[in-house]
Design brief:
It is built from 11 helices and 16 strands. By secondary structure, it is an alpha/beta fold. A 6-stranded parallel sheet has the order 3-2-4-5-6-13, sandwiched between helices. The chain has a 6-stranded mixed sheet with strand order 8-7-9-10-11-14, with helices on both faces.
Length: 363
């Protein structure tokens, strides 16, 4: 497909600084996934979001399982065929910056990062920490050991703030909560994921989370309940995972990328896409939410969490809640209310009090 942006720029000069105009039905979208499109979590939800664009007349194509070290050349290749290219992993940020500099007639959008420019690159995020905070409330109400275990993927700011958010949520109903993390340094490695989940279970954690794309914690909790009668619960991640362990599943943070992707591509189609928008959507916009509740979760727990969720959607809490209320770091340092906003969340490099692990990356 010919580059619509280039045509308009050359013929009509209809692209002003930072604004792209493209004819609606002709838009072509390329996207890059860090994992397989059917991983059951992060990449699957992005894939589903992009595929939903085809219902609105947009053309889409993907490249999956792209290592971050190889991503720049993939972005550049897609830029030759598409009007807009999306990168769906934090580690794609710097390679996309370089690709955007070399391919000025293509729009580039990067998920979960914080870099861009005034011409053809921006970033976006759905605030998963909001939903993760809600799951923490449920975890704090359901645990009997006051111990929550988390299978950690990579210690990037998004994952750190998610772990901190679930800890803060749990502490609102159970101040004795302790959170332990086992890192596997991978987004999708089911064997390592299961080993980490087992280690957390053996260590006495009766609520199991994951920040990876494998439902290992869900299937393990189900098996521990069925085989040994262990009262352990699980939380899903990024997508509904309850089918992998229906008896001991609570809920989980879930992305709805389709709403944001349609919003962005519709802007491009209507000639209103400006850079530096830095989209940051959350519960209020339905970009994140909770996956369906497990069948054995007590109604009192569901009602408590759903009430807090509706209060948030109705603007009783701010976009950066609970962090904007102030937090106590793991080392006892207090960050006052109002100090943590989006820039601080995007670069978060510390655990809050209640997480027992040493922080994995030194400042």
């Amino acid at each position: 497909m010919k580059k619509i942006i280039a045509i308009i720029a050359a013929v009509a000069m209809a692209v002003t600084v930072g604004i792209a105009h493209v004819s609606a039905k002709q838009i072509s979208v390329g996207y890059v996934l860090v994992g397989p499109h059917n991983d059951g979590g992060w990449s699957m939800r992005h894939h589903q979001g992009f595929q939903s664009l085809t219902k609105h007349g947009y053309k889409v194509s993907m490249v999956e399982m792209v290592p971050e070290s190889d991503s720049k050349k993939v972005f550049s290749k897609l830029a030759r065929k598409h009007d807009i290219v999306f990168a769906t992993s934090f580690g794609y940020m710097d390679p996309m910056v370089k690709a955007a500099e070399k391919n000025k007639n293509t729009i580039f959008l990067h998920a979960t990062g914080y870099k861009g420019n005034d011409k053809n690159m921006d970033n976006y995020v759905c605030h998963s920490f909001q939903a993760r905070y809600l799951t923490g409330i449920a975890a704090g109400l359901l645990t009997k050991t006051n111990s929550i275990g988390v299978v950690g993927s990579h210690p990037i700011p998004e994952i750190i703030r998610n772990i901190n958010a679930l800890t803060l949520g749990a502490q609102t109903v159970n101040p004795d909560i302790k959170v332990k993390v086992v890192w596997i340094n991978s987004w999708f490695d089911p064997p390592k994921d299961m080993d980490a989940a087992k280690a957390l279970l053996d260590d006495g954690n009766d609520i199991l989370y994951t920040t990876t794309d494998s439902p290992s914690v869900v299937s393990l909790a189900q098996r521990a309940w069925k085989s040994d009668g262990k009262e352990v619960w699980s939380m899903g991640n990024d997508a509904p995972m309850g089918d992998n362990g229906p008896d001991r599943y609570i809920t989980g943070m879930m992305f709805n990328w389709n709403v944001l992707y349609k919003h962005i591509v519709d802007q491009l189609a209507s000639g209103k896409l400006e850079m530096n928008q830095r989209w940051a959507w959350g519960l209020h916009e339905n970009c994140v939410g909770l996956s369906p509740w497990g069948k054995n979760v007590p109604g009192s727990v569901i009602n408590k969490v759903e009430t807090v969720k509706m209060n948030w959607i109705n603007d009783e809490m701010g976009t950066y809640f609970p962090f904007d209320q102030g937090v106590t770091k793991q080392d006892g340092t207090k960050i006052p209310a109002g100090e943590i906003q989006r820039p601080q969340l995007e670069t978060m490099q510390y655990f809050v009090k209640g997480v027992t692990n040493p922080f994995p990356v030194q400042n």
